[in-house]
Amino acid sequence: MSITQLKLAEKIIRDYNEVIKLTDTGYLGLPEFMLGRDKSQIKQALLVALSELDADEADLRETLIQSFLYLARFVPKRKAEIIRRGQEAIMSGNPNHPDLEYGDEAVKIINEIKAEMEELRFEVYAYIKRKAEEKACLEHKNHDSEK
Known about the structure:
Layout: H1 3-23, E1 30-31, H2 39-52, H3 58-70, E2 74-75, H4 77-92, H5 102-146
Parallel strand pairs: 1-2
Helix pairs in contact: 1-2, 2-3, 3-5, 4-5
């Protein structure tokens, strides 16, 4: 991993953390444009950071994993608008609310977000496991070559 790649990953994560701070409401369905970058770039930066952590950095690892999962909360603008309108209509308690028609669709999108979070959870833990196995294999080879 080059210093340039690490610095870029660090900047991407720092920018993403600022977005998380501004949107840390637990709200699902935030518009992707708030990220300022493509989700795939942020995912890659988080994976780079995870791969560079030492074993004693468990708290930072958990923070990066949580940030990885939070990416699912960001959706295309249209879906974010449907969620906003649907939730507002449902929360109003008004059975004649003009946006009540968005309620069912909003629930479907929220369920998609939750499913994506689970997929991301599997992805990040599989990545961590693979990197740990690669590191153990490399250490084993280095240990054998020292004999």
